[in-house]
Amino acid sequence: MNDDDSAPGWEAIDVALKPLYGDEEPLHWAPILHHALGGPDPLDGISAYRHPGPAPHWHFITYGFSELYTKDSSDPEISGYGFELTFRLHTSTFDEPPPNWVFSFLQNLARYVFSSGNVFDSGHYMHLNSPIALDSDTRLWAIAITHDRELLEIDTPHGHLKFLQIIGITLDELSAIKSWHTAHFLELLGQRFPLLTTDLGRSSLTDHDDVAAIINAGIRADGSSTASLFVGAASWRVDRRVLHVDRLHLTLGANGVRDFRVVLPGRLPHGRELSVESKEHSMTFVPSDQCSWAVGEGGDLNVRLTTRAALELAEVIAPKRGTYRVQSFPALSIHVVKSEIRDHEGRVAEVIG
Question: Which DSSP symbol is given to 56?
Fold first, then answer.
């Protein structure tokens, strides 16, 4: 912080909120011990404004992903990570304060960004591995991210930043996004929730036959915008045979297969590659008029598949331990191994395979 306790970055955010909320005083939460002094919460603060609607909701704004006090990062054009998060939670009354789980949830997202360096952007999505509100029976176990529809990007004394809104979604909806496109799906969601508010009690859009039909038609027409998948386990080896055809053996974790078999048909048949990466290995599936593979100079693997082989692979493979083969590419076999999904505290929440 500055010695004079000035916070020009913070003030710039407040100025951006002024046209929307005027002189309304928000509810505000700040960590007991500042992160710079060893506290566990990366965000300096979170404000909550009462928003009348179309559907009444609490509008949360974070302070801390951008540079609030001094310019410390090396990029003069961007303030900190270049964004602050917003979140709109449906409420039936403003007579009671918003629930505390929201503040833990937003701080947990901040911990992920600060510890990993992975920066959020519009179009991103994430499986939370637990309900968005812990200890609730909500079906919202994932999030999608888009630009906040009411807050424009701004320039601060420390650089540019945008307001990215977090939207709670179901796992069925997450699958639809991966198969299709985040923006297209959120356009449908916005028709029922105009400001993309999060309602813990809502059902999945895919439960409605008319909406599911639109999603499926969009997937067939547009394919998938998901260009890469990061999975827990992905590796490969080649069996070299002197008198017979070499064989390629791929190994994938069962959890990664759940996404792989959904996304693959929306990529290769539409002329698009799909990258599958783990911490140790990377493999890229490439559309081709014949099936083959090649190893690049860096040791990464390119698997060339025809449309027929890609569709067949997506059809036969399952998130269950076993070995899977494709008739149209007999030199390829895929071994699926068990995956463990851990919750926010690192405990095993689900075993797949």
Answer: -
The residue to which tokens 């974790």 are assigned: 253
- Residue 278 in this model has a pLDDT that exceeds 70: yes
The answer to whether residue 85 scores a pLDDT higher than 80 is yes
Q: How far is CA 271 from the centre of its chain?
A: 24
Residue after which a domain boundary falls, among 156, 187, 222: 222
211 and 235 co-located in one domain: no
Residues 213 and 273 in one domain: no
pTM: 0.89
Q: What is the pLDDT of residue 3?
A: 47
State percent of the chain over pLDDT 70.
Answer: 94
Name the band, by pLDDT with cuts 50, 70 and 90, for residue 296. confident
Query: Contact, 231 vs 252, CB < 8 A?
Result: yes
Q: Is the pLDDT of residue 126 over 80?
A: yes
Question: Both 62 and 203 in a single domain?
Answer: yes
**Run of H or E including 177:** helix 171-179
- Summarize pLDDT for 309-342 with one digit per residue, the tens: 999 999 999 999 999 999 999 999 999 999 766 5
Do 63 and 80 touch, CB atoms closer than 8 A?
Answer: no
Residue 128 CB burial class (10 angstroms; 0-12, 13-18, ≥19) = buried
| Co-location of 194 and 317 in the same domain | no
Q: What pLDDT digit, counting tens, does each position of 177-193 carry? A: 999 999 999 999 999 99
Show which of 222, 242, 270 is a domain's final residue.
Answer: 222
pLDDT averaged over every residue in the chain:
92
Q: Determine the Cα angle at 107 with ends 228 and 55, to 5°.
A: 85
Vertex 256 angle, CA 129 and 109, to 5°: 35
Number of domains in the chain: 2
By the 8 A CB rule, do 101 and 138 touch? no
Residues 189 and 306 in one domain: no
Give the number of residues written for the chain.
353
* Three-state SS at 214: helix
- In single-letter form, the type of residue at position 241 comes to R
For residue 202, the enclosing domain spans: 8-222
Same-domain pairing of 90 and 172: yes
Residue 72 maps to a domain = yes
Judge if 19 and 41 occupy the same domain: yes
